[in-house]
Design a protein that fits this description.
By secondary structure, the chain is an alpha+beta fold. 35% of the residues lie in helices and 24% in strands. Strands 3-4-5-6-7-8-9 form a seven-stranded mixed β-sheet, sandwiched between helices. Strand 7 and strand 8 form a beta hairpin. Bound molecules: D-MYO-inositol-1-phosphate. Its cofactor is Mg(2+).
């Protein structure tokens, strides 16, 4: 049977590559850096330009499809995931990295139908790595199959996380308390690429055993979530149970036991949901 969404996925890969070129070119220019929810939540004209480029290109080809885009939501659009085919876009995941030319910056495109993820594309544009996953068909990096780590022992693991963009003392205290608990399991190390999408691709590639974060948004993790699960990994909420991409909380791991061990150590909290206006 023909794959209904393969065409859309091929298109997403081509657009992500084009968007990546725009991001790479922009690194050479002077940037105008603006802020959103706080003085450390950065945005540039390139984030906005790349999101418009992606949305306009998709609209030409798939005029009935809907969008959730980081910069469109920042500009006041609703963050609504319906049953319609929906493109979930982070034009630059790792904007702070981009501003500082720290070399982990991704274009992230998730695609969902009936609230089920159909494909995910993460283009790590400074590394020139194209990560892709199609539901039920595996995950790939530059065409090579991906598989999560087979490490079963958390004490032999590397865990990825981020500090996020909240500087509220209560949230920062909880972030440090979780980090301390996890570090002292003890684990081999804690890392963070500065891009949720790339952290998830690192889980899918078997370079780290798990990634967790509270404060991410649906556009940061929509594509990466499918890439992790198609590479054989698991997704969980930070308190255990199923992940809810609107909840701004995620654990992605190579296996359930590692995810559950991390959950035990997380001092959880609940930021305002993405779908709450
Ligand atoms: C951010 C990055 C960062 C993570 C933040 C995200 P953005 O996305 O993924 O690693 O810690 O929670 O919001 O703002 O660069 O698209």
């Amino acid at each position: 049977m023909a794959d209904l969404w393969q065409n859309a996925m091929d298109y997403a890969v081509a657009i992500a590559r084009k968007a990546g070129e725009v991001v790479r070119d922009a690194l050479r220019d002077d940037m105008k850096v603006m802020t959103k929810s706080s003085s450390v939540d950065l945005v540039t004209q390139t984030d906005q330009k790349v999101e418009q480029l992606i949305i306009q290109s998709v609209k030409e080809k798939f005029p009935t499809h809907r969008f959730i885009g980081e910069e469109s939501v920042a500009a006041g659009e609703a963050c609504d995931l319906t049953d319609s085919p929906t493109w979930i876009i982070d034009p630059i995941d790792g904007t702070t990295n981009f501003v500082h030319a720290f070399p982990f910056v991704a274009v992230s495109i998730g695609f969902s139908v009936n609230k089920q993820s159909e494909f995910g594309v993460v283009y790590s544009c400074l590394e020139d790595k194209m990560f892709t996953a199609r539901r039920g068909k595996g995950a790939f990096c530059n065409g090579e199959p991906l598989k999560v780590s087979d490490q079963e022992d958390i004490k032999q693991s590397i865990i990825a996380t981020e500090f996020g963009s909240s500087r509220e003392p209560e949230a920062v205290d909880k972030i440090f308390s979780s980090l301390r608990n996890i570090l002292c399991i003890p684990v081999h190390g804690v890392r963070g690429a500065g891009s949720a999408a790339i952290n998830m691709c690192l889980v899918a590639s078997g370079c780290v055993e798990a990634y967790y974060e509270i404060g991410i948004h649906i556009w940061d993790v929509a594509a990466g979530s499918l890439i992790v699960s198609e590479a054989g990994g698991v997704l969980m909420d930070v308190e255990g149970g199923g992940v809810d991409l609107m909840s701004r909380r995620i654990v992605a791991a190579n296996r359930r036991a590692i995810a559950e061990r991390i959950v035990k150590e997380i001092d959880s909290f609940s930021p305002p949901r993405d779908d709450t206006p």
